[in-house]
UniProtKB/TrEMBL annotation:
Residues in the DNA-binding region annotation: 29-48
HTH tetR-type domain boundaries: 6-66
Coiled-coil spans in chain: none
Gene Ontology molecular function, alphabetical: DNA binding
UniProt keyword annotations, A-Z: DNA-binding
GO biological process: one example: regulation of DNA-templated transcription
UniProt protein name: TetR family transcriptional regulator
Highest taxon of source: Bacteria
Length: 199
């Protein structure tokens, strides 16, 4: 019984993820989610307590930032910690297109759900800022403005989200997530490398 309930919850979440990405949160009804999931329309209220709680549950179940505590040791090192965060942001954005689309839509619209989104994303960017500051103090990073360095990291990690607008200019028909992450990290570290040191 518990397994069947868990499976139905996941079917509802996957249906919501698909529809929110395609139609937006406001353009998607509970009935549509349940039809997509093959579920009774009452189950969204029964399992989640409403559509907004389904939205929050998507982050609780699919957002990789929830696992930061698993990498506590790596995140104490400025270089390896920043490498991990940038890599994870890029891999997530390129591999879970539906969820990434939902996240981007909500932030760009500054919707009523922006606070939910930022409650999950802010810890990642806060940690990136801390690692930059720590790295500069240790002499492994060199930059003038922490704010500008931080915005550069964020922009580089999120740039692939806009690349679809310029796909015709790419020499490769499809970007590889691992290669994109690796190259982005390489460029970030090249920009912050102190004079006279190697990558």
């Amino acid at each position: 019984m518990a397994a069947a309930e868990s499976e139905m919850k996941m079917r509802i979440l996957l249906a919501a993820k698909k529809l929110f990405a395609k139609q937006g949160f406001d353009g998607t009804s509970v009935r549509q989610i349940c039809e997509e999931a093959g579920a009774n329309v009452a189950l969204v209220s029964y399992y989640f307590g409403g559509k907004e709680n389904v939205f929050r549950a998507l982050f609780e179940n699919f957002f990789p930032g929830q696992r930061m505590s698993e990498y506590e040791t790596l995140l104490k090192d400025p270089v390896e910690g920043l490498r991990l965060l940038v890599t994870e942001v890029i891999m997530f954005g390129m591999e879970d297109i539906e969820f990434s689309t939902i996240l981007q839509q909500e932030l760009e619209m500054r919707s009523a759900r922006t606070e939910i989104v930022t409650s999950f994303t802010a810890p990642i960017w806060r940690k990136a800022r801390e690692l930059l500051e720590q790295g500069r103090a240790q002499g492994v990073f060199q930059f003038d403005s922490l704010d500008h360095a931080w915005m550069f990291v964020m922009g580089a990690a999120l740039a692939h989200k806009k690349i679809i607008n310029y796909a015709s200019m790419l020499s490769e028909s499809e970007l590889d997530p691992e290669q994109t992450a690796s190259q982005t990290v390489k460029y970030i570290f090249a920009a912050f490398r102190p004079s006279g040191t190697s990558a």
